[in-house]
Amino acid sequence: MAIPDRGLLDWLDEASAERGLYYAEKNDGWDFRSYRELADLTLRTAAALRANGVGRGDVVALVLRSSPGFVAGFFGALAAGATPCSIAPPFAFQRADEYETHVARLFETADPKLIICDEESEERIRKLSAGLSLPEPVVFDSLVDGVEPLAAPLPLPETALMQFTSGSSGYSRGVLISSEALRANLTGMRRRFGWTPDLPGVCWLPVHHDMGLVGYLLNVVVTGASGWMMQPDDFIRSPLRYLKCMSDNRTAITGMPNFGLAYILRRVRPERLEGLRFDSMRAIIIGAERVDPEVLEDFHALMGPYGLDRGSLLPAYGGAEATLAVTGLAPGAGWTIASPDEGDASALAGTAVVGCGTPLENRTVSIVSEDGEELPDGQVGEVVVTGVSIASGYVGDTSSASGTALGEAGLHTGDAGFVRDGQLYVIGRLGDGLKVSGKMVFAESLETLLHQRGIPDRQVAVLLGVRDGVPTGVAVFGNVRPGWREAAHEVLSEWLGDARLLGVEVGRGGIEVTSSGKPRRRVMWKALCAGRYETSTSPLTGG
Q: How far apart are CA 494 and CA 225, in angstroms?
């Protein structure tokens, strides 16, 4: 069946009273909001925004958890001709000072006409906005109280989304996504993954992250499929509830980073799955970070006996500057591993990398050398993306250490990878590597090896660079356990040769991460060089 292209607000005219979104409640129940109810709330929000002086092209900042208010705030901004911008609520950060520094910069970049928040974050956001001379935040329920809906949506704004990069290499950058780019990305994903209104989904990802926002929420609403919505902390507390939701509601589509699969493997024993069935799942989209082949195998070993098809595990690749999705596998295709060519200038030759699929429709992916020359299959270089859904540009301070750049030649992602038979294999960030004996070693590759030796995801980060003129490899541990330092020494000494090896122990929550959980390696490297970790740093040696 051909999957049609759909406008961003077409769902308002076709809103179903039977399908909609189910929000997780604390008592294991679900709060259902039909699309007809959400459409009315969206048009009420649009009217309220106009009444509060929001004009065409103005930015509306949404500091909200996944909720009916977020849906209405996002699509209501579009219906009012304004540009929505999702900003992480306080729950996404462990430390208040880090949150305030991070969000203050986002607010300064976005320069919103109006800030919508919920009661949970109101006090914190009110303090921040006052210090930045921004409008006082408005609690969503107060904003729409007593407001009659707009008769019809206004023309879409030129920019349908301002989203922020993860900030793994430094500060987050504001990225401008046009209405055409957002529509094309959603359509490309629906067609690649076969998402139709009769296929329900479930997700626990935060809506301030592009995978949770564009990859799931906007897709499920524009498609008109029913969706089950969990908070990230719901998933952390009980990944089994997430799995039961899949089984009980016969969901077909979900998505998460590699971390989510690994977390389920750590927390859910096979006997807890008795009576559950996962044969309805057609697409578990895995992105946002490098995918570990052992995690994929182990996840299917856990879930396969209960009906999960191996072909439903779909590694994908994308980024904020590409709106989201660039490549992906079709359901049933089956994921594969491949290696760079022997003799390639990468120390990964002969090691396995998981494929992230082929480009979505009307996009191309090429691999280029440092000189900008396109490289043949199997050769490692920078991933460059061209075609639809590329961002219009950056907003505010465009300086960054990330290596990602927008230009006439397309999107230079700053990611290292190679192509094999049309499929993309991503290795890591070009700036997160070290040349050893003429070959590049990437931090993400070493982290994957450490995870395979038993150090959990998000509990170790590898930093690579030249410090005081000496090639250096660093393992940063959060809440270090016996055997971790020895495992890290074994891996780093094998791959980094004569480089100086250091261990840094920062304690639980001490590893610098983005609001989506990615390690901020370059931020930590700068801190190391500045002496911030001096008291917790020691040589990394074997047992």
A: 49
What is d(CA 108, CA 142) in angstroms, rounded to the nearest whole number?
Answer: 25
Whether the pLDDT of residue 349 is over 50: the answer is no
Give the pLDDT band of residue 422 (cuts 50, 70, 90): very high
DSSP sequence for 340-389: PPTTSSBTTTTS-EEB--EEPTTEEEEEE-TTSPBPPTT--EEEEEEETT
C-alpha–C-alpha distance, residues 222 and 229, integer Å: 15
Give me the mean pLDDT over the 319-325 stretch.
93
DSSP state string for 399-420: --SS--EEETTEEEEEEEEEEE
Going edge to edge, which strands form the sheet with 138-139? 83-86, 59-63, 114-117, 138-139
d(CA 88, CA 169): 18
- Alpha carbon of 537 to those of 102, 397, 461: distances in Å? 26, 33, 14
Euclidean distance between CA atoms 53 and 240, whole angstroms: 45
- Closest to 172 measured CA to CA, from 540, 523, 514, 543: 514
Q: Supply the pLDDT for residue 22.
A: 98
Kindly tell me the sign of the dihedral angle through the C-alpha atoms of 259, 262, 267, 270. Answer: positive
d(CA 449, CA 484): 12
Please identify which residue in the block is written with the tokens 């005219």: 13
**pLDDT of 51-77, one tens digit each?**
999 999 999 999 999 999 999 999 999
Whether residue 145 contacts residue 90, with contact meaning beta carbons closer than 8 Å, is answered with no
Confidence band of 190 (pLDDT split at 50, 70, 90): very high
Residue 223 main-chain phi, psi, to 5 deg: -70, -35
Q: How far apart are CA 413 and CA 366, in angstroms?
A: 11
- Which tens digits make up the pLDDT trace of 13-45? 999 999 999 999 988 899 999 999 999 999 999
pTM over 0.70: yes
